[in-house]
## 1
Amino acid sequence: MIARVALDFAVRKEFDYRVPPEWDGQIEVGSRVKVPFGARQVMGSVTALIDQSPHGNLRSLLKIIGQHSLVTAKVLKLARWIADYYCCPLEIALRSVLPDTVRKEQKGWRERLCVRLLPRAGDLPKLTGRQREVWQIIEEWKTVPLQRLLELAETTAATVRRLEDLGLITIDSQISERDPFEGEVILPTQPLALNAEQTGALSRITKAMDESADRLSASPSSTLHAPRSTFLLHGVTGSGKTEIYLQAIAHALNQGKGAIVLVPEISLTPQTVERFKARFSAGAHHTLVAVLHSHLSAGERHDEWHKIRQGRARIAIGARSAIFAPVDPLGLIVVDEEHEHSYKQEEAPRYHARDVAVKRGLDEGAVVVLGSATPSLESFYNAQCGKYQLVELRARVDDKKLPLVRVVDMRSETREGKGVPIFSRLLQEAITKRLEKKEQAMLFLNRRGYASSMLCPQCGYVAECPNCSIALTYHRRLEKICCHICGHSAAAPLVCPDAKCRSPAIRYVGLGTEKVEETLAKLFPQARIARMDSDAMRRKDDFRRVLGDFRLGKIDILVGTQMIAKGLHFPNVTLVGIIYADLSLHMPDFRAGERTFQLLTQVSGRAGRGDVEGEVVVQSFTPFHPAIQHARRHDFAGFYAQEIEYRAQLKYPPLSRAALLTLKGRNEDKVKFLAEHLARELEKQLKDFKDLILAGPAPAPLLRAETFYRYQIMLRTRRMSHLSLKLESTLDHFRPPEDIRVIADIDPVSLA
Ligand code: ADP
Ligand code: ZN
Ligand code: ZN
């Protein structure tokens, strides 16, 4: 037998190796293996088992790692699709599919020595007083980790060994799982009685799950068992989406299948995970719920992954990469907050976990539920076209009203000779009122630091990053000017750095959270204020501590960046202020409007979650922008109708699919020249694509980042899966010099 192997380091090729006959039956597609490569020994994954190879003189495999194949054949197929669609070598795709800690040979289960009581025939032999004490503890525990015993009995290993010699106990090593939630007590919950809207939604989902299972049992090998596609569950926050997920998962478990739940990293809080554990780790279903995300230690991640692979955990919950969890058979995939950009990986393989979910669902006959209060234009468009089924929840479960949103026109707030204030009169009054009533407020500004740039009014000098084409942000507490792209920082100058000018009149202009906090403290000296952004939250438990204090009412006003925009639930917050709503509108990105609508809706959703109705004040210089006006009225449908028209006119996604090619290098002329060359080459190679739009090359919105100049070419077509194959081969032949890199991003979400 011959094994075809994709090696871990990228060589865009698979290699054949002979399988020694005695390993027959031990090796499968997906097994991890060690193979000879040149003079080296390298690791790889088996991608196929074949009888004959076109190559002669094959070398033998050196080692099979682990007893089980690590990637199932199904997940391997998914990796191939990712490599093809997202234009990357299979090895790179496999790297995402299999967590590092699982791939590496060294990392195993944690083993620890345990002391076990042996059944005893006859009388206890004669023991010293000390030995007897230790033995009594063991008798009580039956099994106890050696380390624990030494602490409990305040004894030494030698004493314990003596008991072993006497045949009373045995000491052996046992696997002990690292459990990130060790020691937590979670109270089990029962399914809630659903309201009419929820019942309707759930029954459509479970019906599709049943149909898919029927088709699968009728013809297991056919690909026709794909469920009628995917559901888009559109419902405001608090409309009971999560309860529907929970009951749909229960249905999957009843079918003997498992489920994957994806949530954005930022909302993967212990509370979220607890909701799932509480429903499933006790009671009838009794399955483990495995958690996969980037804050786990390597060992924890290894154990969580294997719990799924061994079938002990049938529910996997996690961020982006959990879409590759080896749940098998898979009945359901939930993608919560499907519009979130963090589902897109910004390094190779540049996959979008939502789209991978839809593909995986199709391949494995699993039903996919995409949930959101503000669906992406892509998903809503797919629902409109009938590709996804739209399920809407129009009311909040508790019939609570959505908060009243008021938009303040900041252009009319300008004070005589003093420029624009940070707080409009309306917002100031609203804060005063809430403070008097002992209610809480949240103020949102998506920019940290004190001022967004340093400017000399004498000579016009602006402090820019030496590595990036961007102004440096002033951080007052640190007395530094910092780059938010590359992290460069320097002491804040006291006079103009221009040698000819040296004016002491330099000014810091623009606004960041630090300044909002400071001004707020001056306006409301009695208020207790806290700031939440990545500057203020440097240590791991800062986040928990501030949120805890806020929950206990020890803080009146919380100022923050998008860290406070999502998922937080504080019943006593009755006012949300959005300091500068235009910030995200001015991004050089065709999704700027969509992003603003989503952000405003999300942030507004933090107000009025308790018994008192909430109020939102939005400050803007373009108060009549459709994104702001539709967010004010909580009108997703209206926003969608207007936005889709604009996308259609310009043939932007979702009416086409985009591929963004970025060329980067340190020499700007060279980058530009090669970008032009590549564009001409693409025009030649892609002339069969009738609907192709090729735009560029043009300087990237952020021309220079981390010392690299960047030029971009954007391609748009409706037939992306064809295009990306063609693109891969064109880029393969286009061999840029070593100091220039070409990056292909299919369905990009970030255009900067
Ligand atoms: P969403 O995920 O849409 O934000 P949730 O599922 O979290 O909504 O529901 C919001 C709150 O309402 C939760 O506290 C949940 O327990 C509760 N809830 C959901 N469905 C019901 C129901 N049918 N009856 C009573 N309470 C419900
Ligand atoms: Zn100057
Ligand atoms: Zn920089």
## 2
Amino acid sequence: MAFSEHLAQTSPFPLGIEIARAEGCYIFDTSGKRYLDLISGIAVTNIGHRHPHVIERIYSQLDLYLHVIPFGEFSQAPQNKLADKLASLLPDSLNCSYFVNSGTEANEAALKLAKRATGRHEIVAMKRSYHGGTHGSLSVSGNEVKKQQFRPFVPGTTFIDFNDASQLRHINKKTAAVIVEPVQGDAGVRIPDADYLKILREKCTEVGALLIFDEIQTGMGRTGSLFAFEQFNVVPDILTLAKAFGGGMPIGAFISSKKLMDLLTHDPILGHITTFGGHPVCCAAALANLEVLTEKESWLAGVHDKGKLFVQLLQHDRIKEIRQIGLMMAVELNTPEEVDRVIENLLEAGIIGFYFLSTRNAFRLAPPLCITTDEIKWACERIIEALDEL
Ligand code: PMP
């Protein structure tokens, strides 16, 4: 279905629901049909659609100013307050934020910072990872299907298997950075062993390589803590955020120490530049989003139990495995066709589920963190019915 002759498409079979509005955990189409959103715009609307606190802050900022100058020149209160809030929530070594427009841009900039800081250019990345659709991020993504038509890529990247400590020998004194999702998202929710990220951290420290955690999908409470790294007790040198960071508005960040970040001010000056990064309306929304998660609502505390409730209720002989951490879940079936049919059946029943980029045998569940236990029970009954229909 083409939405418009003039609107670019990314797939020959888009879901194509005609959106009228969205509120909390629900999306409404133009016919008035209501859908329970079990994917949060792919891990974006963690606090639900249009949280009133976010909307209020957006309106307030609209009345003051929109874009005034590219990032880093003028002092803008929404950027300053957001950076201060992040510094108060993160370890001291992650006390300096640079705001960008998207996840892929955050990763691009993180890779540049690692090269600038180490004077090295080699990157170690993980097989089956996804870090974004632009050239640099795609170069360090381990998704062959998405890459093969777009070669050549940035040279100097070595791919290793995620969660295999024996392969960490490939990280050496030539490595500028290791980029990793603490829990792999588009690979179908791959959760590392308890000590893997710790051993990885030690190896990076030993050889002087920077450790980049891409928490673009795992951040903002998705895995049950504000950032996934808190659960693994490992602090990266650079942290990248996007998706749910803006509470529904487009904003990303790469975050490191003030000492490292200051390298972008000289040799060359303007070491990373962006016109719209840190847009004041997006920063106001992102701060409101963090306030919702850490001060106004207690949803974060319930994420682990809600995730477990999904796993407990989703018992069906078509389900081969459920990989779950917090409210980040992959439900593995037997074939891609089964996945397609379940997603179609769920849409009929008023539920939005979705695919993974590179794991065709599984569908994703990543509901807003504010989903209630009654909604989870209702959704799981519909999912079981959808599986029964196969
Ligand atoms: N990193 C991860 C882990 C992601 O899941 C994604 C998006 N799926 C990205 C980076 C890219 O983010 P964006 O689409 O905002 O560029």
